[in-house]
Amino acid sequence: MGIKISDFGTLPDGRKAKLFTLANTHGMTIEVTDYGATLVAAVVPDAQGKSEDVILGYADVVDYTRFDGYLGAIIGRNGNRIGGASFMINGKKYQMEANENGNNLHSGPHGFDQVIWKAETDEQALSVSFTHHSPDGDEGFPGNFDVTVTYTLTENNEIRIDYRGVCDQDTVANMTNHSYFNLDGHDSGSILDHTLWLDADAITAVDAECIPTGELRPVEGTPFDFRKAKRIGDEIDADDEQIRMGGGYDHNFALRAGEGIRKIGEVVGGRSGRKMEVLTDCVGVQFYAGNFMDESSISKDGTPYHRRGGLCLETQFYPDAVNHENFASPILKAGETYHTTTIYRFS
Predict the structure, then answer these.
(1) Nearest to 303 by CA among 17, 63, 36, 61
(2) Could you tell me if 161 and 341 are in contact, meaning their C-beta atoms sit under 8 angstroms apart?
């Protein structure tokens, strides 16, 4: 049990990255780097005690700049998409960089995933906290935003992620973690045999550019009904308009209302039987099945990652919520504290 700090390589611009390895007393370890406050690895035992790394990632910080996909990164200030790469706050229009089909994805090409965060460890809590100052105008967002992301490895084999932030102007605050999970092992191939349960009655329907239309569409009778656990591959290529638009599953699920942190999802590996429960206080979760992954990215053990080789469950406000009055608002008021928590529990 404890925390180890090691070098994780040097970026092309000369910045050096560190790797933080946290280990509990039950044989679980996680690795996090200060580059992008990125979750690099999670080594988890199965029922027979065999341990596998279940998070897709790279062996050196330079690989995180060579390959796209946001593997394991913290996304901010806004996770997911903003239509037209613009939004209004208090009657003023803010323009962002359009980096996907005229829209903004994950705050643009210079978001929090590109930052070397300041790190502070807590051996007793078995945690590492990353802090960052995002200045007024950063990526088009108003206000000076000071944010902390804390990863804690618990004795219950949980990765707990706490997000906290304060801004001096009204701004958008909708952060998430973009880890790709494969419970059979990060390099074990497809996640189509994994089973998934999600506590969601609806999705936010999207247009051809994956921007929400504003409609909350019931999952009943559609490929998006995971209210009873089912194999991910069963309907991922169904003849369904929403499936075609996302190239498979790449949609926000509107979670059932609940108080505080509650269980909203569960994934079970197809071969290993490893289980991951997802708990959060957020209103939505983006289920992405790795539809656009390709073999150009080389994993931490030197083998290529393949299409649908990992799945993301990104807890969040709904995509483009800042532009939809019927969605829960991601606007953080000046001086107030942004705080959300997400837990990935393994067994």
Answers:
(1) 63
(2) yes
Query: Which one of the listed residues 178, 186, 194, 251 is annotated catalytic?
Result: 178
| C-alpha closest to that of 218 among 231, 201, 235 | 201
- Whole-model pTM: value is 0.97
**Cα–Cα distance, 247 to 324 (Å, whole number):** 24
Half-sphere exposure for 51 (CA within 13 Å, toward CB)? 10
- Residue 241: CB atoms within 10 A of its CB come to 11
Is 31 considered catalytic here? Answer: no
117 and 147 Cβ atoms separated by less than 8 Å:
no
Judge whether 167 and 144 are in contact, CB under 8 Å: yes
CB count in 10 Å sphere of residue 242: 18
In angstroms, rounded to a whole number, what is the distance separating the alpha carbons of residues 136 and 168?
Answer: 9
Examine the residue annotation and report whether 314 is marked as an active-site residue of this protein: yes
**Considering 31, 52, 158, 314, which one is annotated as catalytic?**
314
What is the C-alpha end-to-end distance of the chain, expressed in Å? 18
- Give the integer Cα–Cα distance in Å for 64 and 18: 13
| Furthest C-alpha separation in the chain | 58
Q: What is the pLDDT along the chain (347 residues), one digit of tens a residue?
A: 899 999 999 999 999 999 999 999 999 999 999 999 999 999 998 878 889 999 999 999 999 999 888 999 999 999 999 999 999 999 999 999 999 999 999 999 999 999 999 999 999 999 999 999 999 999 999 999 999 999 999 999 999 999 999 999 999 999 999 999 999 999 999 999 999 999 999 999 999 999 999 999 999 999 999 999 999 999 999 999 999 999 999 999 999 988 899 999 999 999 999 999 999 999 999 999 999 998 888 899 888 999 999 999 999 999 999 999 999 999 999 999 999 999 999 99
- Cβ atoms of 309 and 194 closer than 8 Å: no
Q: How many CB atoms lie within 10 A of CB 121?
A: 16
Residue pair 334/167 in contact (Cβ under 8 Å)? The answer is yes
